[in-house]
Design a protein that fits this description.
Strand order of the largest sheet: 4-3-5
Structural class: alpha+beta
Largest sheet: 3 strands, antiparallel
Order of helices and strands: EEEEHEHHHHHHH
Shape: globular
Helix content: 25-40%
Number of helices: 8
Length: 173
């Protein structure tokens, strides 16, 4: 059963990564040292074949420290700016980055994204704005649109938690 933010699907083989220790986030670096092609992968079987030249253990990303790490790719922050360091964004494609952030931090996104090409889902979101399709409430509606046998049973239960603070631990342990 999929419990939000505990199972990811490998971009290499498509199979579930059920233990954080089995997974990594891989990415490539271009000539300008900017990051792109973010992938969630099985550490042993799929990382090498992915062509990723950088990676980090999947277990390094959850929680507040993990969030701080990936936000550092977007901005080095005010402390570095106050120290007079050169400010830059380490990312090539913000849409790829947003997809990775959603996969790592938004409950049910990882399961829902497997249905984004379904014609029923596309039709439902035909007139949606840039925010609405990626809310937990909308993911629950998405699961109602697809065939129940396509969705693990745990996802058909309506969660009471829908804020990031209720899903993320307050500190990394």
């Amino acid at each position: 059963m999929d419990i939000p933010l505990t199972i990811w699907y490998c971009d290499g083989c498509g199979k579930a990564i059920r233990e954080m220790e089995q997974g990594v986030v891989g990415w490539r670096t271009n000539a300008d040292l900017k990051y792109y092609r973010f992938l969630v992968l099985h550490k042993i079987d799929c990382l090498t074949a992915s062509g990723s030249d950088r990676w980090r253990e999947l277990q390094a990303f959850p929680g507040i420290d993990g969030l701080s790490y990936v936000l550092g790719w977007l901005s080095q922050g005010p402390i570095n700016q106050n120290l007079g360091r050169e400010m830059y964004c380490s990312l090539v494609d913000l849409d790829e980055y947003a997809d990775l952030m959603r996969r790592l931090y938004i409950p049910h996104y990882e399961e829902a994204r497997r249905h984004f090409n379904d014609s029923r889902v596309r039709g439902y979101h035909q007139t949606s704005d840039e925010f609405t399709p990626y809310t937990v409430e909308q993911f629950m509606r998405l699961f109602d649109l697809v065939e129940p046998e396509d969705v693990p049973s745990i996802l058909l239960q309506r969660p009471k938690r829908n804020t990031i603070s209720e899903w993320l631990p307050l500190s990394d342990q």
